[in-house]
């Protein structure tokens, strides 16, 4: 049975490190302190979102449809993933989300009422 790698200590919540690598084929073992890739900080749900986001080539509208959620929800999840990976998610991101909602309204992809609700959810 294969076990998934965990990246946080279940006792103290500190970051875990890999201390040994082993080859099943030839038996070689390598010891040391190896850090986990940053992507291992993502939860299972966040990783599933990233895979879906990539599968849809970053098309938020396609992700909206696949997840059956609103644009602000997709952006919220994306911002959470970015924050978990250590990227700054600032007011510029919210400003971009507001602009995208207004752009969708101007393209008549959503109604005024939908745009208003989406903008309220951003606050």
Kindly list the characteristics that best describe this protein.
123 residues; mainly alpha; Arc Repressor Mutant, subunit A; 5 helices; elongated
Q: Which stretches are low in confidence, meaning pLDDT under 50 for 5 or more residues running? A: none
What characterizes the major β-sheet? 2 strands, antiparallel
Number of beta-strand segments:
2
In oligomeric terms, what are we looking at? Answer: single chain
Average pLDDT figure: 88
**Secondary-structure element order, as H and E?**
EEHHHHH
Strand-residue fraction? 5-15%
CATH-assigned fold name of one domain:
Arc Repressor Mutant, subunit A
Please sum up the structure shown:
This protein is mainly α and 123 residues long. It has helices at 44-55, 60-67, 71-84, 91-106, 112-122, and strands at 18-22, 29-34. It is 50% helix and 9% strand.
Plain-language structure description:
α1 (44-55) packs across α3, α2 (60-67) crosses α3 and α4 packs antiparallel against α5 (112-122). The protein has helices spanning 44-55, 60-67, 71-84, 91-106, 112-122, and strands at 18-22, 29-34. It is elongated. It has five helices and two strands, in the order ββααααα. It is mainly alpha-helical and 123 residues long. The protein has a two-stranded antiparallel ribbon. The protein has a domain at 41-122: Arc Repressor Mutant, subunit A, CATH 1.10.10. The longest helix has 16 residues, at 91-106. β1 (18-22) and β2 (29-34) form a beta hairpin.
């Amino acid at each position: 049975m294969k076990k998934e790698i965990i990246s946080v200590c279940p006792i103290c919540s500190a970051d875990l490190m890999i201390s040994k690598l082993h080859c099943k084929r030839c038996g070689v073992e390598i010891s040391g302190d190896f850090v986990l890739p940053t992507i291992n900080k993502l939860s299972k749900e966040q990783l599933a979102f990233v895979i879906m986001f990539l599968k849809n080539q970053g098309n938020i509208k396609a992700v909206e449809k696949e997840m059956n959620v609103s644009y602000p929800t997709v952006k919220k999840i994306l911002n959470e993933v970015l924050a978990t990976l250590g990227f700054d998610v600032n007011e510029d991101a919210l400003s971009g989300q507001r602009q995208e909602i207004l752009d969708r309204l101007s393209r008549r992809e959503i109604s005024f009422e939908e745009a208003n609700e989406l903008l309220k959810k951003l606050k």
